[in-house]
Design brief:
Elements (H helix, E strand, L loop, with lengths): L3 H10 L4 E2 L8 H25 L2 H6 L5 H26 L9 E2 L8 H26 L8 H28 L15 H8 L3 E3 L16 E2 L9 E5 L9 E7 L2 E8 L2 E3 L6 E8 L5 E2 L8 E5 L10
Parallel strand pairs: 1-10
Antiparallel strand pairs: 2-3, 4-5, 5-8, 6-7, 6-9, 7-8, 9-11
Length: 308
Amino acid sequence: MFPKATLLALAGAVATAVTAQSADVWSAKSLVQFVMNVENLESALFNQALGRFSVSDFTTAGFSNAAAIRGRFQQIADNEALHVAYLTRAIGTDDAPKPCTYDFSAGYDDLPTFINLAQQIESIAASAYIGLGSVLNNTGSLEDDQIRVALTGGASIAAAKARQAGWITATALGEQPWDGAFETPLTPNAAWSFLDPFVVSCPDTNVDLPLDGLPTLVVSNVTPAAGDTISLAVTLKAAKTTRYALWLDGVRAVYSVITDGKTVVPAGLSGTVYVGVVPTKDAADIQNFITGFAVVQFPFGPTARNVA
């Protein structure tokens, strides 16, 4: 497990790009409830998909070791269930949010698109856990039991999810096993902006969390190359006002100007990267996000070097 100081330092690094919600909005308990909502969604995704796709479906999709690949996805599903159980014990049954009703039809319609969605959601979930530190840094006393759960347990779960995302990327998708030297932290709002469209409804007993609804961002090409011009499907309130695409890659924030709904992809991005729209190049926060975040992929081969 990572020590508290390590997680806080990692999550704090992204504060220059995305400012966390203020401490008086998020409590330790509400942050644990937030990641439980993420876990419930992940658990539903894997359970629904595994109920639909058999070993023969994996064979048809081209996997020569179909039983082994499906078995690994089953292990990921088991891990998600264990995360839910751990957090439920930590926060108590009365405060633990119950699973919602989900619709993943916009995310996948066959086995290959499920694998792509699983990789994206595992990556986002890892980023959400890593981002907890930037919110918790000034929230209450670090001796609080629920803060310890969020920091220590969250760091442990984040590492597991990053490994799972790496396995999906490398083995199931045939790409690189990691994104670079750093994982990318996301604040709760940034992470939830990608997940929220899959939520249909939630039990009335679930507590309302301080999550701002952000418009969904759709990009025209989810596997662009540096220098490509891509379209961003978002209606800007002031067409003549300059807007920027904010690219989050590890602990780096890179900006590109948006002109007529299009932007040029910056150089130097690698692996799984998050992109959203902001009004300035100043540190973005939840008050000035124009959109939620979309996932874009920059695969790289074994001869690529990342020494910047």
